[in-house]
Amino acid sequence: MRNQIMLATLFFLWKTILPAHASDADSSRAWQKELIGSLSLSQSQFDNWSQGGENAWSWQIDLLPGFSHNNGDWNWTGAGKLSYGQSKISGTGSRKTADECRIESVNAYQLDSTFSVCISLTGLTQFSAGYQYEGEEKTAISGFLDPGFFTQSIGFRYTRGKNIQSRLGPALKEVVANRHAGLYTDDPATADQEKVTIELGAESSTDVNFKLSKIIWWSSKLEWFANFKSLRDVDVNWDNVISAKIDKYIHVNLNIRLFYDRDISAKRQYKQILSAGVSYSFL
């Protein structure tokens, strides 16, 4: 069942990635492409330092691809977020500080300058194993597609200039797991271990991008999914980035992410990363 879900999702992605009439001779003029990469580093070292301290280093790489294609009333957008980072403090091994692999594909038919009908796919997982640490012991609690979150929806999209974009509609949500199914997909009330959960509900996704000052930008993505069986249990994923561009290549980023899924934890999850480094636009 898990493989069937993955194959169906890949087929759906392929169908939504292909822009309408992309084979037209002049279609290349309608393409907009963007690929931004950034590298953040930090390091500290102490030798006979009377105030104490631990040698440490950390690094993080981010890739943010974005593509769009306009052809008459049809518009396709694809975006991704690939992020990975590690840190090490003297006396401990390297540990993950960031790990995210996210894709999004939206194909929309424009009704007017503001509203469109759209079909979308999102996928979210991580690259490598995640661990829970207790002293010197570590226990694996996650991995690549373990879990993996996939959502397919159809509905309406509202667009206001280049700053606000929001969509709403009925959706299917799948969570797949393998070794760690007991943490993410298994129903303890059943005898067999479920490695896939499928929910029917409503999904909303809102993207906001605003320039707060001459060098500071705020981008936010708020997603929620409500299962039709229990509309009070709403899954929420809210990702915020405040970015200050010091010059053409140097940047400082503050990333704050709130995540809530009652099937995984009864409490909300919180992650905050402050980083500085270099960024470069490849496209």
Keywords:
single chain; mainly beta; Porin; twelve-stranded antiparallel barrel; two-stranded antiparallel ribbon
Model description:
By secondary structure, the protein is mainly beta. The protein has one domain: Porin (Beta Barrel), CATH 2.40.160. The chain is built from 2 helices and 14 strands, in the order H-E-E-E-E-E-E-E-E-E-H-E-E-E-E-E. The strands form 2 sheets. The protein has a 12-stranded antiparallel barrel with strand order 1-2-3-4-5-8-9-10-11-12-13-14. A two-stranded antiparallel ribbon has the order 6-7. The relative contact order is 0.13.
Find the structural class using helix and strand composition.
mainly beta
Shape: flat
| CATH C-level category | Mainly Beta
- Largest sheet, if any? 12 strands, antiparallel, barrel
If strands are numbered along the chain, what order do they take across the biggest sheet?
Answer: 1-2-3-4-5-8-9-10-11-12-13-14
Q: What is the number of strand segments?
A: 14
**Could you state the order of secondary-structure elements as H and E?**
HEEEEEEEEEHEEEEE
Helix percent band: under 10%
How many DSSP helices? 2
Rg, please? 21 Å
CATH architect. name? Beta Barrel
Mean pLDDT level: 87
Strand content: over 45%
Distance between the termini: 39 Å
Low-confidence stretches: none
Q: How many distinct folded domains? A: 1
The name CATH uses for the topology is: Porin
